[in-house]
Design brief:
The protein has 283 residues and is of the alpha/beta class. The protein has helices at 2-8, 19-30, 67-76, 80-98, 110-114, 120-130, 150-163, 179-185, 194-197, 204-220, 232-240, 264-271, and strands at 35-43, 48-57, 103-108, 137-141, 166-172, 189-192, 223-226, 245-246. It has one domain: Alpha-Beta Barrel (TIM Barrel), CATH 3.20.20. Helix content is 43%, strand content 17%. Strands 1-2-3-4-5-6-7-8 form an eight-stranded mixed barrel, surrounded by four helices. The protein binds calcium ion (CA) (2 copies). Residues 170-171, 191, 227 line the site of one calcium ion (CA).
């Protein structure tokens, strides 16, 4: 497929999108080819799934199956907001169809939230049609570029909270996600980027970062969700540090039919206290 070849040589600096690629994207946006998958978010204290992050996949036979390629294409073809809108609709509908327990963590960019064309009533309409209420949805603010207007974003998130939605700050410590946004928006949840969780069991510096982030979270009334947990050791260490919530392959993969309960091994490990090793001390 020509679009695959074009994607393989995709350069972020390209100014004009290659037409076949945009045509593929337009077809995806017009059809039923976007699919939602869901990854569990786990409460460590009672080893329970308390919600799911909704993630998106393109058609399985296309280079646009990967969300990374899908969103890169949308950016190049100036269809980011249209893609986000389609993803929101698919994710809300599928979450309701699957009757998953707990909250749906729904990715939304600050740009989408602030766009004059963004219609909150439309999202609420889809939710009502699916039988969901705002109390069941956590808006995951995912920054892919710097936030321009903090005051406006604060206003927008306050508006959503008034409607019953909760707010999460995504990917703390990665890319543009920053402490200022945490301070300005006072989110209900802060999702800690996988950089800080992967290998934490044997990294004293990462453990200290997590303790400090925990302290800020405690002071501001936020709960930290550790992302990217892929090993039993890292899970035990994060649990031992007092982190309350986590997400990652070790707890459950993103799937079209996701797990509804934790593996017994994970449940047992969460019940047993196990401190971090800290083999590499803070220099
Ligand atoms: Ca996210
Ligand atoms: Ca994330």
């Amino acid at each position: 497929m020509l679009a695959n070849l074009i994607l393989a040589s995709y350069a972020p600096t390209a100014v004009r999108p290659p037409a076949p690629w945009c045509a593929d994207l337009a077809a995806i946006l017009a059809g039923p080819d976007l699919h939602a998958v869901f990854q569990p978010i786990v409460d460590f204290a009672d080893a329970r799934i308390v919600g799911y992050e909704g993630l998106i996949r393109g058609p399985s036979d296309s280079a646009l199956h990967s969300p990374l390629n899908l969103f890169a294409a949308a950016e190049q073809c100036q269809q980011l907001l249209a893609l986000e809108r389609a993803c929101r609709q698919v994710t809300l509908r599928r979450f309701a169809e699957l009757r998953l327990q707990g909250a749906l963590f729904l990715n939304i960019s600050p740009q989408a939230l602030l766009d004059p064309a963004f219609r909150p009533g439309e999202t609420l309409g889809w939710m009502r049609a699916a039988g969901l209420s705002p109390e069941q949805v956590v808006i995951e603010l995912t920054e892919t570029r710097p936030v321009g207007d903090y005051a406006l974003l604060r206003e927008a998130t306050a508006h959503y909270r008034d409607m019953g939605f909760r707010i999460a700050l995504d990917d703390l410590g990665e890319g543009f996600s920053n402490l200022r946004l945490w301070s300005e928006l006072r989110p209900d949840y802060v999702k800690l980027d996988k950089y800080f969780t992967q290998g934490i069991a044997s990294d004293a510096a990462k453990q200290q970062f997590v303790r400090s982030i925990q302290a800020i979270a405690h002071a501001t009334g936020a709960r930290v969700i550790a992302e990217g947990i892929e090993t039993a050791d890292d899970l035990a260490c994060l649990n031992g540090l007092g982190l309350g919530l986590g997400q990652g392959y070790h707890l459950g993969r993103p799937l079209a039919q996701p797990a509804r309960a934790l593996d017994e091994g994970v449940t047992a490990a969460l019940a047993a206290f196990s401190p971090c090793h800290a083999a590499h001390p803070w220099p």
